[in-house]
Design a protein that fits this description.
This protein is of the alpha+beta class. About 15% of the residues lie in helices and about 45% in strands. It has one helix and ten strands, in the order H-E-E-E-E-E-E-E-E-E-E.
Length: about 150
């Protein structure tokens, strides 16, 4: 009987400490899965060990071409053209700037093989993504939508 009580106390303590650890290790609001504007791809945004944010392609609506996984065929580095697009890191090095802005990062577009400077603004369940060359006034914006 005393042993059962001890086991219950230990288990209760573990759940209490575990719950506290989980609550204190909160994610940034930008972290998670996002659909691109066309909903043809889903990107997972996560915080790296350097406290910057990154994003990789987690899903493609059409993941294959001719029965094989789609590859990064337009990459300027010929050694990377046989890398699958699913799993490809396309967002790199974003720093949080304020409560809902993320900048100083880059976005890679596998459709054309080009990398652009990028900034993102979180607006609830919408992410405004702006890729540009040089100054942000000259570029292209798109909206991403949080995936459940």
């Amino acid at each position: 009987m005393l042993r059962n009580l001890f086991v219950r106390v230990v288990l209760a303590s573990m759940f209490t400490v575990g719950g506290y650890s989980f609550a204190s290790a909160q994610c940034d609001p930008i972290e998670g899965y996002w659909f691109n504007e066309e909903k043809s791809a889903k990107v997972q945004i996560y915080k790296g060990r350097d406290n910057r944010f990154y994003g990789k392609v987690a899903w493609l609506k059409v993941p294959t071409r001719d029965g094989k996984p789609k590859m990064d065929q337009r990459n300027p580095d010929p050694n990377k053209r046989n890398n699958p697009i699913v799993g490809l890191t396309i967002l790199k090095g974003f720093e949080k700037d304020g409560s809902n802005e993320y900048d100083d990062g880059t976005i890679y577009d596998p459709k054309n093989g080009k990398t652009y400077s990028c900034k993102m603004t979180l607006d609830g369940s919408t992410l405004d993504v702006r890729g540009f060359i040089g100054v942000s006034m000259i570029g292209r914006s798109t909206k991403w939508y949080r995936s459940n």
